[in-house]
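Re: folding output
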Amino acid sequence: MTGTSSSPGSFFEEHGVENEDIRIGDSAVPFGLIRVSNPTVGVGGAYGTWGESCDNARLPSVIQHQLGQALPESDLMELDQLGFLNRHLTPELSEPEHVELEIEVGARLLRRAAAANGWDPAEVDAVLIGVSIPIIPDYVDQIALRAGIPASALKVTVHKACDGSVGSLHLALNPTLAAPGQLNIAETLYGKKVLLGGIEGLTRGLRFSRDKNALQLFGNGAGVIGVVPGKTMKFLTGKSHEVFDEDGVLALHMYYPHSGRREPGRSLVEVSQKGQSIRVAGLMHEPEDGASIAMAGPMGMVKLFVRSGVQVVSDVYQAYQALMQRLGETPRIAVAIVHHANYKINKLKEKQLANLGIKFPMPWLLSEFGNVSAASNMIAFMRQLPKLKPGDHVLIDGFGAGTYYDVLAVEMGA
């Protein structure tokens, strides 16, 4: 695993960023995207962020403005040690302006991601997006419509917190995930043009939060890739797993439809479909005070995610090794793309996996965004994409509040 950069510069200042403003009422909201393409494997995408850039040094004054009081010195996190040097924050807007901003962000992202694959939006067959705190219930439908994607395209929204984008990818590639009576998304999308990823306006969602940890950790971010399942990205093996967060170590308000029921022996995930739109909604332990989020400190996150996370990765890797043995091939994980919850979590997972004899590169690739939830896996993947070659195997590890895990191994195509 690589370390973190020492430069806390804004993402907007990086090489290759396409910067522009989104006009919202009297405000001009900074917006930047990078397009990435690797023609040798046939995959491209776009990632970026929006809002005011804020480094670690300035963050305490921003939080003080929101809370009306300064955070005690003892509550300030060592963010650089957690891998985060900068993040981007949504400005103060009216509710309709927030809706307009995030629809425009999503539409621009989809158009750029399609272009990175050489596709016209009218050619796209499906859009699958992970989003933790949606601004409106039909967000994915609205951004697809504005981007020029046909109404006939399948739209899938995945609410599994930080696991949402990997959950989307898993649904698009693994036909065994479909429950009886549900549309088999992977079979439906095989060989078709699919845009998928995560879009997270988290700092808009934190307007009503007083959680000292969440206000320091999270930022805005988005990443969408284009794949042709079975051709440019092939499913090898994977596992979807859930363990309900009984204690509410990372509690998250459900800003999306869910019955809130827990039934013994049944999944915490509810799936609903209306026309060409599907919603995959995970049950969350919600904050008792009605806030958007309530979280324990870094050690609480370690306990929540590492033990089960290491087990799921281990299970998938063992299944992957067995598959390679059956095929008479040598295991060849080129890189693991792990959700960037924080650097220490990933470092501890790497150490515990190594103790089990499981070793592959797990680079830390996001320092200038903060924790961007479901967007992080896709941004990290695109930052590795130029190095990938046809036939490379990639392990993708997603996990999020709830608690949900999706881990899968894929082969890059041509």
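--- second protein (sequence, then structure) ---
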Amino acid sequence: MNKMTSQKSLVASREEVEQAARLIKTWLKAQNNPESEVAADIGLQLVDADRSGRYPAFSRTYDQDFSADGDYIATLPDLQNSDHLAEFSSTIQHVGISNFRLPLRYRLPSGGHITLETSVSGTVRLDADKRGINMSRIMRSFYRHAERSFSFDVISEALSDYLTDLDSTTARIHLAFSYPVKIRSLRSGLEGYQYYNISLEQIASGPCATNIVHLDYVYSSTCPCSLELSEHARMVRGQLATPHSQRSVARVSVVLAKDTEELWFEDLVKLCRKAVPTETQVMVKREDEQAFAELNAANPIFVEDAVRAFAKELSGDPRIGDFRVVASHQESLHSHDAVSLLTEGPTFATESLEPQYFKSLYHVG
């Protein structure tokens, strides 16, 4: 039978509390460090608490007039920079912050600029002999460059600050935004803005840096098999049939080749459109819808065909080094998706895939 200890036996007497507090105060003063006096004062507050029985007797009102001067800040505990390490210490490849947002400016091919809300992620390598990093330094380092027009050169300067401020050898910045490009309709002459999900990534390891552009390209994919079966039904049985097609997404990631001066976002879009011309449309009238149906019939494509078509165009551009193409055809026939991944070069080579990787290739319009 379990026996519960009475609540009364667990309550220390006031004499015992005062004795313990004085002992703590004496020990803190003996440490001879800036925090000890403040801690000792707290100990006194505990001992001299309101005799009415309230414990502890701290203020519950926010002091709007309090100012933290240098002396006060020097007394604040800094656990991250303490010598204490976790029981198991190991190197951490990425530690930092993700998805802090701010408006950033980007250059346009026309010579102007555009300001876009940007999601920023910044991480550094943490060696095994260090407990942690000061997370706020990542944001503070980045904000020093936030008013500039962003390019990989500017990102490189921000990464250099990361390496210095956080005493690391490897750092990474990732900028993600939605980039508008005005697109002309197929036949009616109307124009509208297509928005492309684009990311700029730079990885700095010592004196070396790798610049990567990620682009999501959204297109329609008509199944070649379904197209042939539909035509067979028409010709052999006089049966009207339509092939299935679906909205599809390709995520194209390219490493800029050494000494590449510029690869505009529009240039990468054009390479994708040349590979797979059935990009989804913005402004559509009846003549445009008919044209799109004809365009799809002229370019039926399996997911395997798609990644190879993208790879052919990317490999032929001298501004592009290693690359990766991931495609997802979100089937209208099946209740599952058809997916494919193709890489060129060591940058993206891997045998493992994130369990949810292909699910991120989804365009909601």
